Amino acid sequence: MSQPVSLTAYLTEAAVSHRIDEALVTVVQQIGAACREISGALNHAALAGILGATESANASGETQKKLDLVANDAFIHALGPTGVVAGIASEELDGPYPVPGASGDYLVLLDPLDGSSNIDVNISVGSIFSILRAPRGAAGLSDADFLQAGTAQVCAGFAVYGPATVLVLCFGHGVQGFTMHPISGEFLLTQPDIRIPEHTSEFAINTSNQRWWQPPVQRYIAECVAGKSGPRGRDFNMRWVGSMVADVYRLLTRGGIFMYPRDTKDATKPGKLRLMYEANPIGYVVEQAGGAASTGYGRILELAPEQVHQRVAVIMGSREEVERVASYHAAG
Ligand code: AHG
Ligand code: MN
Ligand code: MN
Predict the structure, then answer these.
(1) Based on the domain organization, do 50 and 187 belong to the same domain?
(2) Beta carbons of 138 and 102 less than 8 angstroms apart
(3) 260-316 residue pLDDT tens
(4) Which residue's CA is minimally distant from atom 12 of ligand 1?
């Protein structure tokens, strides 16, 4: 079998074919380096005594795991010294962080470790990243510079730390999947041009929230569960890992729909997942793989963000299914 293309070789080629500048190549290389380091930290976490929670909470009020902070530090140490990242926003930081002394004009938004409830139980977790341009460069960077719609992303992707560590990458020209070689640590292109299968019979939603779902979601799931004897005329399967990265990697591979809809559990929250760290980067990847990403009422990537930590309803995956859920919302 011929050796797959390395991430470095892919980026060298993409720099020419997709006109990606050297600074953006550096940002992505350093994101790969941080993911490699986090993968190692996860492998050794129990032995190194870094499982479990800290006593601190993030800006969204969620208790931070020790590994949330390890992963956040890994990204800051990998990206800060490059000089090409003007600012970083992270689920684990109170607000946007202007990188001291930076002269570059890229912004990186991060969910350093996605799936925190799975960290201590040895189930797949991941990291999510979104890259934007700083509209006014590094000088005079303001918090408002981060508030760009998902359509403005120049690159996004995520890593899954599972049986294998994989890196899913998208520059707006399709979606590429790399697997980390367990010995060399090199990322190798094993899933080129990922396309989400159009026809699917698998759904992912946390059904323990069912009593708070709104009617369009109740209807869609009831129809799936009714299976062959219901209006869909076929049986569906349900999966819920509890790490968005793992659930989405599954739907990139074999299709499906993933939902964390708005519900009535806490009327002040427009959903659970974060627009800038989760919904936009993963929505960008899903769309580029031929799928769709919606709030139920519109395209996630077109939302005008108001706040870096804001939450949003998420319905994404195989296009036909997402459009069906959106049509149920439109029907009221
Ligand atoms: P995070 O660990 O970054 O806070 O994200 C967890 C998210 C997401 O990965 C997952 O789909 C969802 O929360 C799981 O929520 P439940 O615990 O309600 O199932
Ligand atoms: Mn997350
Ligand atoms: Mn997280």
Answers:
(1) yes
(2) yes
(3) 999 999 989 999 999 999 999 999 999 999 999 999 999 999 999 999 999 999 999
(4) 242
